[in-house]
Amino acid sequence: MLLSHCQEQADKLLETGRDNIFLTGHAGSGKSFLTRHFLRHRDRKSFPVVASTGAAAVLVGGRTFHSFFGLGILEGGPIPTIAKAMADRRLIKRLRTMEGFVLDEVSMISGPTLNVAETICRQARDDPRPWGGARVIAVGDFAQLPPVNPHSRKKEWAFLDPAWERSQFSPVMLKSIQRSEDEAYLRVLNWIREGQVNDEVRNYLDRRVDEDIDESKSTHLFPHRSRADQLNFQRLSEIESPMREFQTEYWGSLHGIASLKKQAPIPELLQLKKSALVMIRVNDPGLRYVNGSTGIIQSIEEECLVIELKNKTVVEIRPSAFSLLNAEGEITASATNFPVMLAYATTIHKAQGATLDRMVCDLRHLWEPGQAYVALSRLRSGDGLTLVGWEESSIRVDPQVTEFYRSIARQNEVQSPT
Fold first, then answer.
1. Whether the Cβ atoms of residue 67 and residue 120 lie closer than 8 Å to each other
2. Residues near 363 by Cβ (< 8 Å), separated by ≥ 6?
3. Residue 191 phi, psi dihedral angles, 5° rounding
4. For 353, left (φ over 0), alpha (ψ -120 to 50), or beta?
5. Whose CA is closest to 132, among 86, 178, 87, 171?
6. H helical segments located in 61-214
7. 135-154 pLDDT, tens per residue?
8. Cα dist from 113 to 65, 81, 136, whole Å
9. Per-residue b/e over 343-370, b at no fewer than 16 CB within 10 Å?
10. How far is CA 376 from CA 11, 26, 128, 227, 381, in A?
């Protein structure tokens, strides 16, 4: 796959520069692809990938940010956490020997967490420069889901913390959308990303509302897991084909296996039937499908699923392993099964990072900034969108995020005057 013009420009900064980079852009602009391109010839020991959540780490084959920097649950606050980390010889060796790291889904890392990690890195490397001189490539979009903190009503965005300014990130904004060529849909997505509901957005979403929905051919996105599970089991039970069950095989420590059962994109028991709608949860190196591609099962064998994708391509899917890595990059647990899940329904959170062809979604009663944008930006085209309903109060963005991206735009205008 060739890089777009803006990806080529970003790739030059990643490859030839020494600055810390904040790689951002709208959903579908190719952030993940460009990150993989950057890492293709790099040693993961000297340039590891760390992710904000366990689920994201499993998908990218990386480690969690918390485990890599020895943060734990930050019990007792920053000072005890830093003291504990500085007593960990393996942690200090790990941080001293790395060249840098990629931080995936940075929007879900809170500012205080980023601050503690940066302090630990600086002290462990005995270097006063930001992150002790290690290079940081932070990847993500703050217009998507925010960091979770049940103890605070305020959103502790990483860019609000002094550690962000201290890191001196050079922002790289990807503007060309690779996932879609539907210009009308892209305009609507851009408005929604900014939390704006104008006449164009209203008219577009109103036209997509359909009470007579054929849910059997599209993935339904729900805000809550219970509703997604209920619809999946209901649709599977309506298929007359015999049920086939595949138990996920786990290997590793008890703690690691327990974590994988929560974080891996496959269930403990995979229940399938011929003619069932499924979603593939891995990327194909041959580019025939991506994480989120959906299709209908044509046949089921012990070691192979034959699936007809929405574009009529027929592919064979074999079992894959999803691994959990410890702070040292060692596999502590793995889960092996067919890398698919029932695709009649999933949650908005679980769909983050996936690319869908068709989707049914309910945009009512959403509560998080960016939630509606994450849901809608999963699609390649607006032609695949059906809405159960929508309301303006569900389309929201944190004003601090809006101002942050405006400051990036102003910065880029100064650096590249027209």
1. no
2. 205, 372, 375, 376, 387, 389, 390, 391, 394, 395
3. -65, -45
4. left
5. 86
6. 65-68, 78-86, 89-97, 111-124, 162-167, 183-193, 199-207
7. 999 999 998 877 876 556 67
8. 9, 10, 15
9. bbbbbbbbbbbbbbbbbbbbbeebebbb
10. 27, 12, 43, 18, 10
Whole-angstrom CA distances from 264 to 190, 250, 295, 318, 350 are 31, 11, 20, 17, 10
User: Of 144, 54, 76, which is closest to residue 332 (Cα–Cα)?
Assistant: 54
Round to the nearest angstrom and report the end-to-end CA distance of the chain.
Answer: 30
What would the pLDDT profile of 173-220 be if each residue is shown by its tens digit? 887 666 556 788 988 988 998 888 999 999 999 999 986 666 556 788
Q: CA 382: distance to chain centroid?
A: 21
Residues comprising the chain, all counted: 418
pLDDT tens digits for 278-310?
Answer: 989 888 877 788 787 889 999 999 999 999 998
CA-based torsion, 220, 224, 231, 207: positive or negative: negative
Tokens found for residue 264: 């891996």
- CA 322 to chain centroid: 16
Query: What are 333's two structure tokens?
Result: 């647990």
Bridge-based pairing state of the strands 305-309 and 294-300: antiparallel
DSSP 3-state of 136:
strand
Mean pLDDT of 341-363: 84
Residues 46 and 38 sit within 8 Å (Cβ to Cβ): no
Taking the CB of residue 319, how many other CB atoms lie within 10 A of it? Answer: 16
CA distance 122 to 127: 6
SS3 assignment for 296-342: EEEEECCCCEEEEECCCCEEEECCEEEEEECCCCCEEEEEEECCEEE
CA angle 170–172–177, rounded 5-degree value:
170
Question: Position of tokens 């990150």?
Answer: 35
CA distance 344 to 237: 12
Listed in sequence order, the residues at least 6 apart from 166 whose beta carbon sits closer than 8 Å to its beta carbon are: 118, 130
> In whole numbers, what is the pLDDT of the chain averaged over residues?
86
